[in-house]
Write a structure and sequence with these properties.
Layout (H helix, E strand, L loop, with lengths): L8 H12 L2 H6 L9 H23 L2 H16 L1 H8 L9 H13 L4 E4 L5 E5 L8 E7 L13 E3 L2 E3 L3 H20 L7 E7 L9 H6 L9 E5 L6 E6 L1 E10 L3 E2 L9 H20 L5 E10 L5 E2 L2 E10 L2 H25 L7 E10 L2 E2 L5 H12 L5 E5 L4 H5 L4 E4 L4 E3 L7 E3 L4 H15 L6
Parallel strand pairs: 3-6, 3-7, 7-17, 8-16
Antiparallel strand pairs: 1-2, 2-6, 4-5, 5-19, 8-15, 8-17, 9-13, 9-14, 10-12, 11-13, 18-19
């Protein structure tokens, strides 16, 4: 049952769309003799959108929200120094600590009530609402980058453009989180729900979403809704979690001299066969059905050109938003590895057979949040209010975890213009970057609720 404080008409207005959300689904499930026509279903959908648009417009017209928008126009360009400072603190996988400390410092300076770093390294800042902790909404950016330790992360400035590995993905996301907090505090915006401002660890690569998995694990805080800032365009709304399996495959043998020990089973030869057989099977598989991808991303091993290696390793990534398709390509991969091992061992002329270790190093669950869910509808209304056309998409982000567990969650864009994510030549340009901050603020406030009386 939905309970609202007496006189809290804005919260009631925001909730009205929530109550209306099942309307379309109800009509689609009506008995055959009273089934809604396509025109009726479309009409209900349009009416539902209109309700969310009206609620969002009323929210945006509140004096404190208009003041927050005005402040964002000043705050966001001025936060360029924060973007540069955070980017220049290396945050390779599993070594996000120094950047976490800096982000925590900035959250405190922005006026967060309490700031802490949890057991796995996530940074959290609490801004209490009026509701006594009955609902908690989180706004997140991730701390880590894909780049290994030793990468030069010095920001190079060319005109208005900033160049550095990780400057967009997702350091700019962290700055969006900071600027939403700053605008809310300086404009004295009060929410009904508590708000958590979060910087997560382990979003990229082999981090395997370890930060957000901890937050939604047994020892994590209460979180009822999740909004991640990760990706480019502000009109982009990720409500479908793209699942992935990641493996580290290691073929092992005795190794030896390329002439003196010739005839021993060669781990590199086995690895080459495994990659070949996998691609041969995966290519036709991925040309039909729900989109599915595969990639051999890292190959390593060997000591010298004249030495039979004692070890050969590769890391493989497979993705699909469809759990059955992901399981299917995983099966093809396992078969390819076993076939390669058996064939290479059959070729050996001396010595022991090769062995192989297939280790799952990444497992991101897939899932879909119904577009009729209030958080998705509110996000679309916010995008429309800002004069853009919302685009519902899938992605592999921190939101995968709450979506897979049935918790309302979306990922939204960090704004500006950028290119070259996950590459040394990555760049970000403040092309109306404030728009993404306004978008994040509107979605957060719509989800958290704003009491009529500040």
């Amino acid at each position: 049952m939905l309970r609202l404080a007496a006189g809290n008409s804005l919260c009631m207005a925001l909730a009205s769309a929530t109550l209306a959300a099942p309307l379309v689904a109800f009509q689609r499930d009506s008995p055959a003799d009273g089934a809604a026509t396509p025109r009726q279903v479309e009409s209900a959908h349009v009416a539902q959108e209109a309700r969310y648009d009206t609620d969002l417009r009323r929210l945006a017209e509140r004096p404190e929200v208009r003041e927050a928008f005005r402040l964002i126009e000043r705050i966001d360009p001025a936060s360029r120094d924060d973007l540069i400072a955070l980017t220049q603190i290396p945050a390779p996988p599993f070594k996000e600590g120094p950047r976490a400390q800096k982000f925590a410092e900035l959250l405190r300076a922005a006026g967060a009530d309490s700031v802490w770093i949890d057991a796995v390294g996530n940074v959290l800042a609490l801004r209490p609402g009026r509701g006594g902790g009955q609902k908690v909404v989180a706004l997140d950016g991730h701390l880590d980058t894909v780049f290994p330790e030793g990468t030069d992360v010095t920001v190079r400035v060319r005109g208005d453009t900033l160049f550095a590995p990780g400057i967009g993905d997702d350091t700019r996301g962290l700055v969006v989180v900071l600027n939403v907090l700053r605008a809310m505090n300086q404009a004295n915006v009060v929410t009904q729900a508590d708000v958590l401002f979060v910087g997560t660890v382990g979003e990229e690569g082999l981090g395997d979403l370890r930060g957000v998995k901890h937050l939604f694990g047994p020892s994590g805080p209460r979180i009822d809704s999740w909004i991640a800032v990760d990706g480019g365009a502000p009109e982009r709304i990720v409500h479908r979690g793209l699942g992935s399996h990641r493996y580290r495959v290691t073929f092992k043998g005795p190794g030896g001299h390329s002439w003196g020990a010739f005839g021993l089973a060669n781990p590199h030869h086995a690895l080459g066969r495994a990659s070949y057989y996998f691609v041969e099977a995966a290519d036709p598989y991925t040309r039909q059905g729900p989109r599915t991808s595969y990639n051999v991303g890292i190959i390593d091993g060997g000591t010298s050109v004249n030495a039979i290696p004692f070890e050969a390793m590769m890391e493989v990534d497979m993705r699909s938003g469809n759990p059955q398709r992901l399981a299917g390509i995983d099966s093809l991969f396992q078969q390819a590895v076993r076939r390669a091992l058996d064939q290479q061992n059959a070729l050996r002329r001396a010595g022991p057979p090769l062995s192989v270790e297939v280790k799952l190093v990444g497992d991101r669950p897939s899932g879909v949040l119904d577009p009729a869910t209030p958080i998705v509808q509110r996000a679309q209304a916010a995008v429309r209010h800002l004069g853009l056309e919302p685009a519902l998409e899938d992605g592999s982000t921190d939101s995968n975890i709450p979506i897979s567990r049935g918790i309302p969650a979306i990922t939204i864009g960090r704004g500006g213009a950028s290119q070259g994510a996950h590459s040394p030549g990555e760049w970000w340009l403040d092309r109306n970057g404030a728009l993404a901050v306004k978008n994040a603020l509107l979605i957060l406030l719509a989800e958290a609720g704003v009491p009529m009386t500040p």
